[in-house]
Specification:
- This protein has about 140 residues and is α/β, with parallel strands linked by helices.
- It contains four helices and five strands, in the order βββαβαβαα.
- Strands 3-2-1-4-5 form a five-stranded mixed beta sheet, with helices on both faces.
- Strand 1 and strand 2 (about 15-20) form a beta hairpin.
- Helix 1 (about 40-55) packs across helix 2 and helix 3 packs across helix 4 (about 115-135).
- The model has no long low-confidence stretch (mean pLDDT about 85).
Amino acid sequence: MKRKIGLDVGDVRIGVAVSDLMGICANPRETYTRKKEDPAADADYFAEYAKREDADAFVMGLPRNMDGSEGPRAELTREFGSLLEERSGLPVVYVDERLTTVSAERLLIEADVRREKRKKVVDKIAAAIILQSYLDGGGARRV
């Protein structure tokens, strides 16, 4: 089996998680700071990342409105996903990510992580939640 890479895409940062080889567990890896005004550079970074990790797909959180509709943020995420598919040659699977950042924040608060530290890790924890829901086969809906 190959690994899956989970991404929580934001305007400034992208949280990154990677599955184990068996596809059982999502592991938070890093918080990548996006290159301003250069999404191609971001996509190229993740194309190389996928090669290093021997990954065969990206699992990307798709931000939807609470009523399930897609807004401007979802459109930007899909645009980046299309660019990532083009640059990496790997498929991008979208997972409904409603409230994943909220869940990540709560998890960190319950673990008594200080506010300054939470800001540094919340994106990669959200990416792990997105990827884990995909690996579990339904915790979040694929869209």
